[in-house]
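Input (structure):
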């Protein structure tokens, strides 16, 4: 019998307890012995439940109990998650977490402590929920040089953008609906401003480069400025707007950004809709492969946690080489990243089109039926810094990066 503890019985934590119960035979078969949750650490008591007797409120009970070999951290946030996870690893316990904020902020130190103590710190559930992506990066793709990771990594924003595209609704209206359906948090900032995608991208980029990535260095823009009108233009280009997190890795140079980007129907990520996530990985030998599925939710995310628990137990006395080291990965300035640009312009059309062509080179022009006051152009691919400098001369309403050719 192996004993585990679950810290935080919220959505994911309760999913873990449920899976360990419902798939008990599967887990036992994998391990060759039973896995039992000995403690559930939470602020609440859960009277009347089958696990009431396991609920504790004092972390030190877990820390001191030598029988507890695996600790699941599903509390979220940095405090007290960080000191408690650290203490568990130092006490020689394996830790499995779904907490991307913790991994993005303290992953380097926690991975190091895990190595020093010959235990494992695993976080498959922190990116893409139930989609296998972390383990494929350090196992299935271990012979590849990863050149690019581009993903739709946030279900809430993907749901909002999909609805705006399909139903022509405003951002505010869909956000409200998403909150009512429980897809979006009451405080949706982390999702809609791109911070959640940014942390997930930092983790994936660190996995791919083997170096520490400071998520604060990743240029991040959210979707709050995307309008229903942008989708009307996008439709003319057989395109849609998606919130992408992307890292392009060329030797030591890494561009990483989180941006709303117009992508066309030929892009595999175009078909990733609603709350689903999709992650494209390009390896130098493999070419492109895509991971698709439920990036959030109780059981999908808990499933990834349980798989990590099994992985940790199967490597009870060894640290599985994975993650990244203390060397820091520089992130190149977005000024040298390359995009096409969709630009909405306001003013005298003929004159502006002529000027745009002479400044940007070949462009395509678009107009909306009945819209006299504005029109739009799509440029060819160019460096962001050069584009921004050229654009400053124009009376523009807004621009969105595009990857259409
Ligand atoms: N808020 C996140 C999302 C949850 O919408 O994808 C999963 O990390």
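Output (sequence):
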């Amino acid at each position: 019998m192996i004993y585990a503890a679950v810290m935080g019985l919220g959505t994911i934590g309760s999913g873990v307890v449920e899976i360990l119960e419902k798939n008990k035979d599967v887990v036992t078969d994998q391990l060759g012995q039973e896995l039992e949750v000995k403690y559930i650490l939470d602020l609440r008591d859960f009277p009347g439940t089958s696990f009431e007797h396991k609920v504790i409120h004092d972390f030190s009970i877990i820390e001191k109990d030598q029988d507890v070999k695996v600790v699941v951290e599903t509390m979220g946030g940095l405090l007290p998650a960080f000191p408690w996870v650290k203490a568990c690893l130092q006490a020689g316990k394996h830790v499995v977490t779904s907490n991307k904020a913790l991994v993005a902020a303290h992953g380097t130190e926690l991975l190091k402590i895990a190595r020093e103590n010959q235990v494992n710190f695993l976080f498959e559930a922190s990116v893409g929920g139930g989609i296998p992506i972390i383990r494929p990066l350090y196992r299935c793709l271990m012979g590849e040089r990863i050149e690019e990771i581009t993903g739709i990594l946030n279900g809430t924003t993907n749901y909002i953008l999909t609805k705006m595209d399909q139903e022509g609704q405003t951002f505010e209206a869909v956000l409200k609906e998403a909150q009512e359906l429980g897809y979006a948090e009451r405080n949706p900032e982390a999702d809609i401003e791109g911070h959640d995608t940014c942390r997930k991208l930092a983790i994936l980029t660190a996995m791919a480069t083997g170096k520490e990535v400071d998520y604060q260095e990743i240029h991040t823009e959210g979707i709050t400025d995307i309008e229903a009108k942008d989708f009307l233009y996008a439709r003319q280009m057989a395109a849609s707007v998606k919130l992408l997190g992307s890292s392009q890795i060329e030797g030591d140079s890494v561009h990483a950004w989180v941006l709303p980007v117009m992508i066309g129907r030929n892009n595999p990520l175009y078909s990733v809709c609603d709350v689903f996530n999709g992650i494209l990985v390009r390896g130098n030998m493999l070419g492109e492969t895509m991971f698709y599925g439920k990036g959030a939710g109780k059981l999908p995310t808990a499933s990834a946690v349980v798989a990590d628990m099994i992985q940790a137990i199967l490597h009870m006395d060894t640290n599985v080489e994975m993650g990244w080291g203390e060397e820091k990965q520089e992130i190149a300035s977005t000024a040298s990243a390359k995009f096409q640009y969709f630009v909405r312009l306001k003013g005298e059309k003929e004159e502006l089109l002529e000027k745009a062509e002479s400044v940007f080179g070949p462009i395509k022009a678009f107009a909306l039926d009945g819209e006299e006051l504005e029109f739009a152009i799509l440029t060819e691919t160019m460096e962001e810094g050069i584009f921004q400098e050229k654009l400053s001369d124009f009376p523009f309403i807004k621009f969105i990066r595009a990857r259409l050719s």
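Notes: Residues 2-129+299-314 form a domain with the Rossmann fold fold (CATH 3.40.50.720). The CA atoms of residues 113 and 355 lie 59 Å apart.
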